[in-house]
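User
Please review the sequence:
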Amino acid sequence: MSQQLERDVRFLKRYSIGMTAIVLVLSAAAFVRPARREKFTEIDVERINVVEPDGKYRLVISNRPRSIGPIYKGQPFAYAGGGRPGLIWFNDEGTENGGMTFTGSRGADGKYSASTHMSFDQFDQDQVLNLDYTDDQRGRLTGFTINDRADVNIFDLVKQQDSIMKIADTVARNSALRDLMAPRNGVPLSAARAFFGKDRAKSAAVVLSDPSGRPRLRLLVDSLGAARIEFLDETGKVTRTVGPNG
């Protein structure tokens, strides 16, 4: 009887050791197995994060409520998310560097607004190349815009702005904001330099501006089909017009 018990105990020990080894091998295999490519016929999702191996964002695709706010080197700043449905792109440092958003709705009053916006950002700054469509009761605008941006870090700029907004004295706060947004060494923080597209007046237009963003040359074909070239001074006054006949 004791010999049978000893054999049973030895069997249980061997069984226990064997099962433990199998579990360990299977567990290890689960962690080292190559990544599988999944295939879906259809998927409903509110947000997709494409990330680098270190966790930095590379692309975020989302609906409006789950849309992301501005990110600088992985750190949120400026304003919260929830207002930019579409795609937001990020550079190698995990900083937002462009995106594509789109909206469109009609209110209870019957008025509507729609937009599509695709932009590419200057490094550590904001948009320098835009493709825009905007549409509401004022008319439709569609076109490309090229902007100049000062070499000012946008994260530092927003931090300074946030500090200024905490100033209780209205006069002092407004003065500090004007100083913050003033040109740097004569270079504006932002200046639209070129536009190509169709404006709200239904004119096909090419508008070229000076380094301060003031339009100085316009090539127009208006809503009636009339073509002209306009030269403007620094105040926006047309100083010369060239028509089809010179």
User: Anything to note?
Assistant: The chain has three helices and 14 strands. The chain has a mean pLDDT of 90.
